[in-house]
Amino acid sequence: MPKLKDVAEKAGLSVTTVSRVLNNRGYISRETRDKVYRVMKELNYQPNEMARALFRKKSNMIGLIIPAVSHPFFGELAYQLEYYADQCGYKLLLCNSNRDIAKEHKYIDMLKKNQVDAIIMGSSVLNVEHYLHLELPIVSFDRSIAGNIPIVTSDNLLGGKLATQLLLDKGCRKPVFVYRGVGGPHHQALLANGRAQGYEAVMKAAGIEPDLLQLKASAEDDSEEIPEMIHFFQQRPEVDGVFASSDLVAAEVIQACSRLRKRIPDDMKIVGYDDVRIASLLSPQLSTVRQPIREMCECTLQLVAKLLEEEEVPKINTFPVTLIERETT
Amino acid sequence: MPKLKDVAEKAGLSVTTVSRVLNNRGYISRETRDKVYRVMKELNYQPNEMARALFRKKSNMIGLIIPAVSHPFFGELAYQLEYYADQCGYKLLLCNSNRDIAKEHKYIDMLKKNQVDAIIMGSSVLNVEHYLHLELPIVSFDRSIAGNIPIVTSDNLLGGKLATQLLLDKGCRKPVFVYRGVGGPHHQALLANGRAQGYEAVMKAAGIEPDLLQLKASAEDDSEEIPEMIHFFQQRPEVDGVFASSDLVAAEVIQACSRLRKRIPDDMKIVGYDDVRIASLLSPQLSTVRQPIREMCECTLQLVAKLLEEEEVPKINTFPVTLIERETT
Question: What are the backbone dihedrals phi and psi of residue B165, each rounded to the nearest 5 degrees, phi first?
């Protein structure tokens, strides 16, 4: 099997130069680069990525920790992140934490041992101190973790305001905010709670008492929420609108209304959050707040790349949201 | 930083024994294992997984190639596979191929260079010969690849028969099979085409001409299919039933019917395939053929583990399907 040395010899270059081409480090002319690749091809040279990674202390792997890739939002997130990681020559190690503290902890240890170059945290339930000593570039998605860890998020506060204002404009008198919760809606670290704050601000400005329904934090892939919602709506017949913290929760609200024979949008108006693909496959089609998932994922990978080059990056990266009116309002 | 030697010394064991514990190889008594882990903890010993992997030629990583994790079926598949991989001490490298031949090829090269221990192919569009020289354990999901590569699949033929028989039993005279296709429905390698064959067998037995609608193979995450379906149903007003090749396609059929003001199930009856979570969140709730995704993923990891131990495994692993009747029939 040909070695790096053989490539260097045949190309008439030093081993250092060939290694720099392979590792994409330092300035290399176009001509030199092309020559190295041509010779590699001629010799059928296969660089051993793992040996190179160990040498460079780079694995070209990024760990992705999310609650569950089976959740439509995190499925789209993982898809887009993998796309941009691949564009940058990175591979994504998938970890589903189920929002379980022990599992999240275990994954972080595991990722560190596997020497991933960086971690993308799509959700975290661990306390801040677990991240402070990681000595790894981390980018957080929608959750404030610790001092210098950059965050990518959508404008949750504006999203909450737009959704609630739409419900009021369409005539709702008693819209509630329904969310699946870890901690309360004011748990500071969860930036998604900006959605609740936007809801509350608009409600207060309209002189209506805010009203929140917290669903049990579930394993993300059961549908135990529907009986819970039916019970809530039975107890509270005056409720005439729902701002749901995600499109999936909104889909469950539609099911609950269907079982209670509440007509949408006549008896109940609903706005979701995310604009994942199912939003437009529900009947009626869901009005929702669109997060620009693709752009947010592109930004996340750009931040990871900059952190790896030890460049300065902005701490808060907030993306605009758009109100999408469909048939539930 | 403590080394393996330090752990061995303190535990009063040989380096070989400690290494066997870490690599989970050969017979080790419970007592010895416990002692090694206790000393590792006392010394705060962190095995460097990558160095170990290189030494053992094991990375404890499995490459997963699927069309798109944002697709509800593949999202649930990736979630369950990651769960069972984690149980076996394996990490999953996520690759979305978009059913693009060039991308699939690139991923296979990349996975080989990264020395993954095995590959799970959730979908393949490449020809057989690309897999024959891989020298890596491969398990294929729903697609027959080559000579000795084991396959995990659901009973597509029975699923197609059950779905079609249900449509006929409910009074359909002209049910069609709608699928999103790579190649024709008889492209042998795609085991999912058993669904089409089951449909055709039941139709022929009932003396009705089979009728198939192939949608363009899309990037899995657009919804261009709906106008195409609307056009088809406008041209073919006699069609009164649809067996869709996946729940996602069925969701699109529901949308098309809604725009055409066709009532479900009165004017059109629909059966899906998969029973992913969205099936019960659609309105009306979708009748479908359930694949036991969890059990299929557990089996896939068991096959990978056996292949890694160079054990014999069954070539075809077919799981039973269940007809779930909900509101669309």
Answer: -60, -40
Distance from CA of B306 to the nearest CA of A (A): 23
Q: Which of B70, B113, B284 sits opposite A76 (nearest CB)?
A: B70
Closest among A120, A134, A138, A115 to A55, alpha carbons compared: A115
Whole-angstrom Cα distance, residue B91 to residue B82?
Answer: 7
Closest Cα in chain A to B280:
A255
CA–CA separation, B99 and B105 (whole Å): 11
Question: Dihedral (C-alpha) B135, B137, B141, B147: value to the nearest 10 degrees?
Answer: 50
A167, A288 Cβ separation under 8 angstroms: no
Chain segment B57-76, per-residue pLDDT in tens: 578 899 999 989 999 999 99
Structure pTM? 0.82
CB contact under 8 A, B50 and A54: yes
* Among the partner residues A75, A252, A281, nearest to B255 by beta-carbon distance: A281
Mutate to test the interface with A, among B91, B218, B324 (most CBs of A within 10 A): B91
Contact A281 B277 (CB under 8 A): no
Neighboring chain B residues of A1 at a CB cutoff of 8 Å:
none
Q: Which residues, in sequence order, are CB contacts of A258 under 8 Å at separation 6+?
A: B283
Give the count of Cβ contacts less than 8 A between chain A and B: 145
Interchain proximity B79–A69, CB inside 8 Å:
yes
Q: Is ipTM over 0.85? A: no
Q: In terms of CA atoms, which chain A residue is nearest residue B73?
A: A70
Report the C-alpha gap between B184 and B188 in whole angstroms.
9
Tokens of A145: 């973790």
Q: How far apart are CA A255 and CA A329, in angstroms?
A: 16
Can you tell me whether residue A34 is helix, strand or coil?
A: helix
Going by C-alpha positions, the residue among A243, A292, A246 that lies closest to residue A273 is A246
d(CA A229, CA A207): 25
Read off the pLDDT of residues A177-201 as tens digits, 9 standing for 90 and up.
Answer: 998 865 544 454 455 688 999 999 9
A46, A86, A94: residue with CB nearest B78: A94
Q: Which of B272, A273, A164 is nearest to B280 (CA)?
A: B272
Nearest CA in chain A to B222: A277
Q: Which of A47, A54, A284 sits opposite B113 (nearest CB)?
A: A47
Structural domains of chain A, ranges and CATH numbers in brackets: 4-47 (1.10.260.40), 61-154+293-319 (3.40.50.2300), 156-291 (3.40.50.2300)
Q: Which residues of chain B make contact with A286, given a CB cutoff of 8 A?
A: none
What confidence tens digit (pLDDT) does each residue in B19-33 have?
A: 778 776 667 788 888
